[in-house]
Amino acid sequence: MLKNFAILVTLGFCYALAEGGPPAIPHRIHIQARAHPKSSFLRRRALSPIDVPLSDFFLGTDLQWFGNITVGTPPQILSVIFDTGSPFLEITSDLCTRCPQKKFNTSASSTFVDGNTTGIFSFATGGGVDPVIDNDYSLTVHTAADTIGLVNGFSAPDIEILLIINQTTKFDIDPYDGIQGLGASAQGLFAALISQSLPGNMYLTPKAVGNAELILGGIDSTKFTGEPIFGDLPPAETELPPSVWLLNSPGISVNGHTTGFLNTSRQIIFDSGTSNVVFPTNTTEAIYALISPDIKPFPAEPGAYGMACDRIAYLPATLDFTFTSQNGTAFNLTIPTVELNVGPFASNTSHCQTLINALEGVEGVLGGSLLKHYYTIYDIGAKRIGFAPAKLLSAQVL
Ligand SMILES: *[C@@H]1O[C@H](CO)[C@@H](O)[C@H](O)[C@H]1NC(C)=O
Ligand SMILES: *[C@@H]1O[C@H](CO)[C@@H](O)[C@H](O)[C@H]1NC(C)=O
Ligand SMILES: *[C@@H]1O[C@H](CO)[C@@H](O)[C@H](O)[C@H]1NC(C)=O
Ligand SMILES: *[C@@H]1O[C@H](CO)[C@@H](O)[C@H](O)[C@H]1NC(C)=O
Ligand SMILES: *[C@@H]1O[C@H](CO)[C@@H](O)[C@H](O)[C@H]1NC(C)=O
Ligand SMILES: *[C@@H]1O[C@H](CO)[C@@H](O)[C@H](O)[C@H]1NC(C)=O
Ligand SMILES: *[C@@H]1O[C@H](CO)[C@@H](O)[C@H](O)[C@H]1NC(C)=O
Ligand SMILES: *[C@@H]1O[C@H](CO)[C@@H](O)[C@H](O)[C@H]1NC(C)=O
Ligand SMILES: *[C@@H]1O[C@H](CO)[C@@H](O)[C@H](O)[C@H]1NC(C)=O
């Protein structure tokens, strides 16, 4: 998932690699204690909820979020994407001579343990403006373990890490130093947090609600309207990694319309490490067909679609994804028209990319384009995901 969408696609590979150990990622995470919000959704916990302030990235589009964690003893601060689409921690290390990111200095940590296994971690990355789907996103990683923590907060010893020891140049522009998986199987740091009765829940909210934040172990009810609606994760499927947060969706509508193909069941993954939206080519093109025949594949960037920038602003493109709540009633999650235009392609700035990227091998992935509009509750203990409309910053100001 690094770049844009990649993470979920890489999971199969991660699991193959996992013989050597779990992954680790360093990122800078500011943490501060916060008062317990009064909420019936809170689980009993031994520690106070922890806030992790997040910066946003993705070429300024508020579609990816990252924050700080600490690695090693004494703690070194590194920044990571908090990725609900993967389970592992990967961080840039001093073993990577050509990585421009901040690096974890393994020899400066008294608690560092070498895992002695090296492998390649490939990302199928798609979409977003500029990062494209190709074969050129791969990390060479080395297994290790060390103490991982949250700044000013929790830390846990002997957490498995994938040290990045080389990377393809496509990763060089990333402003973060790694990826902290927040997958539903709760490995590594998050397993340690749960064992301390801390998380149970985690929340990522978009900049539009007053800067993104990850909250571990609590819910900030000032950031959303109404009561969250929860959907249950389906029983683990053999063909999918058990770490993904996914819900069955009985259908998709575009501007209030659907088709026989779109009105069928598919499993949709909620991935904070994916910037936009990913569907297989057939679903992607069925959705675009209901928006405009002018949206076409952009050959220079396989999997990406786009149209002339000067006409995109006039297209309505409200996408409703239907899900089933815990009591069996249907609810929609909606991506508004404003997300259709991802921005101009670098290779033709008169041509703008549209939000869905085609990629085979997944039934559907909703990333930043959707998640920024909802306060999203990843409830590990109850195996469910909750959504409530995020309060807009402007509404708070008013
Ligand atoms: C992460 O830590 C760095 C200092 O290492 C700080 O400059 C940055 O603002 C922090 N990021 C966040 C999101 O708190
Ligand atoms: C890494 O840590 C070692 C031991 O503290 C130190 O000698 C070395 O200079 C550090 N490397 C960098 C790049 O800071
Ligand atoms: C890695 O190799 C070193 C040196 O052989 C050994 O001391 C250490 O126990 C190994 N680490 C693991 C996790 O097996
Ligand atoms: C590191 O990755 C770069 C870019 O893919 C490659 O050119 C280089 O050969 C790699 N270095 C090593 C030591 O594998
Ligand atoms: C089912 O849940 C939804 C969403 O939480 C709620 O709006 C609705 O009133 C519930 N319906 C019943 C019959 O409990
Ligand atoms: C979901 O959206 C579709 C299309 O706008 C609409 O027909 C349907 O009634 C909505 N479902 C719910 C539960 O709101
Ligand atoms: C979608 O399919 C369901 C059956 O799964 C059906 O009840 C519903 O009428 C269909 N909706 C549309 C708009 O075709
Ligand atoms: C760039 O995009 C514009 C708008 O879609 C299009 O008219 C033009 O032909 C494109 N230029 C090239 C070189 O493809
Ligand atoms: C859509 O494409 C996927 C492959 O990405 C395939 O598995 C699926 O059967 C296709 N659906 C239809 C209705 O053709």
Automatic annotation (TrEMBL):
Residues 65-388 form the Peptidase A1 domain. It comes from the Eukaryota. InterPro entries: Aspartic_peptidase_A1 (IPR001461), Aspartic_peptidase_AS (IPR001969), Pepsin-like_dom (IPR034164), PEPTIDASE_A1 (IPR033121), Peptidase_aspartic_dom_sf (IPR021109). One of its GO terms (molecular function) is aspartic-type endopeptidase activity. One of its GO terms (biological process) is proteolysis. Residues 1-20 form the signal peptide. The keyword Signal applies. The active site is at 83, 271. CDD domains: pepsin_like. Keywords: Aspartyl protease, Hydrolase, Protease, Signal. Belongs to the peptidase A1 family. This is Peptidase A1 domain-containing protein. It comes from Agrocybe pediades. The lineage of its organism: Eukaryota, Fungi, Dikarya, Basidiomycota, Agaricomycotina.
